[in-house]
Amino acid sequence: MNFHRWIFLAAFTAGFAHAQSALLTGKPGAQDFILASQGRAAAVLVETTADPAVARATADFRNDIERVTGIPPAALNGSAPLPREVVLASVLGQSALLDQLAAAGKINLNALAGAWESFVIQVVPAPFPGVERALVIAGSDRRGAIYGLYEISEAIGVSPWHWWADVTPEHKDTLAIAAGARRFGPPSVKYRGIFINDEDWGLQPWAARTHEPENGDLGPKTYARVFELLLRLKANVLWPAMHPSTKPFNGFPENKLLADRYGIVMGSSHAEPMLRNNVGEWKTPASGYDYVANRDGVLRYWEQRLDENGRFENIYTLGMRGIHDSNMIGPRTDDERIATLQRTFVDQRALLLKYARGGEAAPQMFCA
């Protein structure tokens, strides 16, 4: 498969590594946490208050333990009595059990308060009545908790590329997490991800013919695999494919919901303002994509997308170009182009204030 010219916006794992002891221990002692041994695996608890993105990643985590050991961990939903050993992955401020542990002084989560995409992995002895030991993955936010789960997955031998590169993990009979607490994050680069570019050379034909023939395109089934890869690599942003060969990302209405369910921040390329795919979505003649002569029509076009997608996590590309990666239609001189850009910035930020999560403070970028 040819992923020609994927543009890396930043290094995936920037800022997460810290000098600290290894997560796994090959010689587990009485204070360590046994994830799996002697044909059984520790149960994994998902609270009813869990963010859907964390709950989904927890299912991946359970599958990863089974991939390595052949033992499927039980999934608990919080209504059943807790077993002697339990794994708990939660987000600070969204978990009664985390609050209970912190109030009892059994875990210190102060450093997570207000942090971006950070997490603590800690073995907690006697966390709750009748429970001998818990493995706690506490996230400062939902991606923090997700990255904590995948940190353990990679430590036990599941490559982030396990699916894309057919990487089969080495079998292990015993998995044990060493006692103690380890803190990761925040990342040194806040937004990190990829731009699926020139997808017509490889990814789109493969998806259309092989992975997703029911859609005949690069659609939700393929994007789900891309989202998982991003999270396993501790990335958080996707600029989706945008060549004429590919149906626009939002041409599948479920795609935006899928991105949110995974916890991915969506954007659009340097040439596509306000989450719009002009090649596939501007339906009238290209001459109408003119902010001087047709400001109201272009604004309505942008406003529709903000109305549909503004409640999700997005990075908004601002400014104005032509339909594709080309000159603006309408302005003829640099002075006219500058004046048009200044006007689009004001109008686009007014749309953000009205519709976007975070309003005018929503993440924005401009590529000159």
Describe the structure.
The protein is an alpha/beta fold. The protein folds into two domains: 17-184, 2-Layer Sandwich (Chitobiase, domain 2), CATH 3.30.379.10; 193-365, Glycosyl hydrolase family 115 (TIM Barrel), CATH 3.20.20. The protein is built from nine helices and 15 strands. The chain has helices at residues 52-69, 96-103, 142-155, 203-211, 220-232, 254-262, 278-281, 295-309, 334-355, and strands at 7-8, 33-37, 40-41, 43-45, 75-76, 85-91, 119-125, 133-139, 175-177, 181-184, 193-195, 237-239, 265-266, 316-317, 364-365. The chain has a six-stranded mixed β-sheet, covered by helices on one side. The chain has a four-stranded mixed β-sheet with strand order 1-11-12-13, covered by helices on one side. Strands 3-2-9 form a three-stranded antiparallel β-sheet, with no helix packed on it. A hairpin with a 2-residue loop joins β2 and β3 (40-41). The radius of gyration is 23 Å and the shape is elongated. Residues 1-14 have low confidence and may be disordered.
